[in-house]
């Protein structure tokens, strides 16, 4: 199977070991015998940035953003009609996960651990690698459900890994985040960390935040465990302000630019515009974030692209593309933001998981989101006017709906997180595409496996996961997505 074949690390050179008798003669002093862990970190983090940007491989972010109708396609009206069923995770196993496993191996192997401290203390490298690895696995299991986990990344020891149940993966991830965060030491900071600059404090907050968000996913399937894990993660300290926001920074460079910029400008395709569902709702509630999320069309108006309407309702210039805040060449991709932490706490308070006032937390989350999106243009007056509107003012009887709807707005251009929230809560209420192309009638609940590889090269385990989890289609609900 692809994830267990020998992998060449992009941008790195791996040397071949000569026979022992001719070792000195055959070693090139200019070619490293082991991959540089600093470069491995950078490569893995670049993929994390792409995972959370809009247009990328495997429908990384655009697919769920289309499902929750933050975006709509403009020219080829297929993605919003769910045409693609099977999505590949092969590149994640063979890319960042292999990189991170190599970092872990080198920092634990007695023969190599001393030499790699050039790039940071062993414990600090292990902590960040474990947290990132857990984050990617969490991101994957939330999309596909059961996936190879315990038997994955074993190289030629196992070409056909079994699929782990999502429940077991979640249990392992809670443990991994907590143990990894505790592993940081006062040694040298990690080099190659282009996300958080090797800051142990920031990585600990990131790990606690991911534990907290994962715990909330259990609200319907295992609320007892979810409550306990949420409280423990909150006590450990998640993001505490907008200055803690975790964002991947793209560059004004064609080699590492925002993929949405590539689509809009470099390729001049303009495949995706902000959805009319999203724009019309923001107009309805006079949302001051609209102009920071959507760009005016050629007439200077904010007009969303009709969702899943075939044939196309018009050319891209008739509609609002994403604003420069998310579509400029160097516009960052949000990995996780403080507003989401507050919305999670508001939901947890409403569920009775933590003490606290759901209304106050909800309003604080909205304020944090307005401050995040509006920057220096934010005013308390705009915030006060916004939360006073009938459709925004908190009402306890519909608290979950309001929290989820405002989270949907705040998580604009964070497709995977927005889709997770919608699947868990059912809000906002969205109408599916009128004429789906996947044989169904509803909004997809999961991504189907890359059948060309799993069904062909890992047939026994693929058949076993279907028998256990259910039919490999967009409507088989994953473990935590229960009605």
UniProtKB/TrEMBL annotation:
Gene3D superfamilies: 1.25.40.390. InterPro entries: SusD-like_2, TPR-like_helical_dom_sf. Keywords: Lipoprotein, Signal. It comes from the Bacteria. The keyword NAD does not apply. The keyword Transmembrane helix does not apply. Residues 1-20 form the signal peptide. PROSITE patterns: PROKAR_LIPOPROTEIN. This is SusD/RagB family nutrient-binding outer membrane lipoprotein. The lineage of its organism: Bacteria, Pseudomonadati, Bacteroidota, Cytophagia, Cytophagales.
């Amino acid at each position: 199977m692809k994830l267990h074949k020998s992998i060449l690390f992009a941008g790195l050179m791996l040397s071949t070991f000569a026979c022992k008798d001719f070792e000195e003669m055959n070693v090139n002093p200019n070619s490293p015998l082991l991959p540089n862990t600093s470069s491995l970190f950078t490569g893995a983090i670049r993929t994390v940035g792409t995972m959370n940007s809009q247009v990328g491989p495997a429908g990384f972010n655009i697919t769920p953003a289309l499902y929750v109708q933050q975006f709509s396609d403009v020219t080829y009206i297929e993605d919003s009609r769910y045409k693609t069923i099977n999505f590949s995770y092969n590149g994640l196993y063979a890319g960042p996960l292999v990189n991170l496993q190599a970092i872990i191996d080198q920092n634990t192997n007695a023969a190599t651990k001393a030499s790699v401290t050039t790039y940071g203390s062993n414990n600090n490298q292990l902590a960040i690698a474990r947290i990132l690895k857990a984050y990617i696995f969490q991101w994957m299991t939330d999309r596909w459900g059961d996936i190879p986990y315990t038997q994955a990344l074993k190289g030629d020891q196992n070409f056909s890994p079994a699929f782990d149940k999502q429940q077991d993966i979640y249990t392992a991830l809670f443990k991994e985040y907590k143990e990894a965060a505790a592993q940081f030491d006062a040694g040298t900071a990690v080099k190659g960390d282009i996300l958080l600059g090797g800051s142990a404090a920031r990585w600990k907050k990131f790990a606690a935040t991911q534990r907290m968000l994962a715990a909330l996913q259990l609200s319907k399937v295992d609320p007892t465990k979810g409550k306990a894990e949420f409280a423990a993660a909150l006590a450990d300290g998640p993001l505490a302000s907008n200055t803690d926001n975790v964002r991947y920074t793209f560059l004004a460079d064609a080699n590492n630019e925002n993929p949405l910029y590539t689509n809009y400008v470099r390729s001049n395709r303009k495949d995706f515009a902000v959805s009319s569902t999203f724009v019309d709702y923001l107009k309805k509630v006079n949302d001051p974030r609209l102009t920071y999320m959507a760009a005016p069309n050629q007439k200077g108006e904010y007009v969303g692209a009709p969702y899943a309407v075939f044939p196309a309702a018009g050319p891209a210039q008739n509609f609002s593309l994403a604003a420069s805040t998310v579509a400029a060449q160097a516009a960052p991709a949000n990995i996780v933001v403080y507003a989401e932490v507050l919305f999670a706490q508001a939901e947890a308070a409403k569920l009775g998981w933590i003490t606290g006032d759901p209304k106050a937390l909800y309003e604080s989350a909205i304020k944090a989101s307005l401050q995040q999106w509006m920057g220096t243009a934010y005013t308390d007056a705009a915030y006060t006017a916004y939360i006073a509107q009938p459709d925004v003012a908190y009402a306890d009887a519909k608290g979950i709906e309001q929290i989820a709807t405002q989270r949907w707005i705040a998580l604009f251009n964070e497709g995977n997180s927005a889709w997770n929230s919608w699947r868990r809560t059912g809000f906002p209420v969205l109408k599916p595409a009128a004429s789906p192309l996947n044989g169904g009638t509803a909004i997809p609940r999961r991504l189907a496996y890359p059948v060309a590889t799993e069904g062909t090269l890992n047939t026994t385990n693929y058949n076993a996961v279907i028998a256990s989890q259910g039919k490999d289609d967009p409507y088989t609900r994953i473990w935590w997505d229960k009605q």
